[in-house]
Amino acid sequence: MKKLQLYTLLFFVGLVVSGIYPKEYFTWFLEVLPAVIGLAILAFTFKRFQFSNFTYFFILIHCYILFLGGHYTYAEVPPFEWIKETFHQTRNNYDKVGHFAQGFVPAMIVRELFIRKNVISNKSFFNFIIVAVCLAISAAYEWLEWGVSLSTGEGGDAFLGTQGYVWDTQSDMLYATIGAICMLIFFSKKHDKAIQEQFQTQ
């Protein structure tokens, strides 16, 4: 419980700091809103289902990725401006970090739900369905970005963050898919161990 209290404190610290003189307040609001909604959902469902601290930690990291992108806008995050100039890239690619996390973290969340609720009886389809769910989440987010951009005009351009790249939407979904696959390949065993250690008495 102490870890969760620390994670909650760090969440609000990051949220508040990110909201101090951001590049654009409207864009900041749009970018951090998913994190705030996510926290509300986790708090509302906490008594019925508590995730492992391992999963909560990565959720917090994802929130900080959103906070940073909201503060600077995804097209102007300073370290990735340096990478852009150093490696002669045509755009600031911080948004790809965000979309990688958009696949990685939901994969961990869905995986834990599937394991502990015994959702998938046929394990042959286990990883495939997790990746498919993450891709669906990514596609839905792209629809959201599209809708916001259409409804707000130039105000939503920074939120959309295409930076003139015609394949931005498709590459965003690709990075989310890669993130989900990487989570399953490299973190499944650690995830299993964390779940077992924390909930073995339940």
UniProtKB/TrEMBL annotation:
Pfam families: DUF2238
Top-level lineage group: Bacteria
Keyword check for Signal: no
Keywords of this entry: Membrane, Transmembrane, Transmembrane helix
InterPro entries the record matches: YjdF, YjdF-like
Residues spanning the membrane: 28-46, 53-74, 97-114, 126-144, 173-188
UniProt-recorded name of the protein: DUF2238 domain-containing protein
Source species of the chain: Flavobacterium proteolyticum
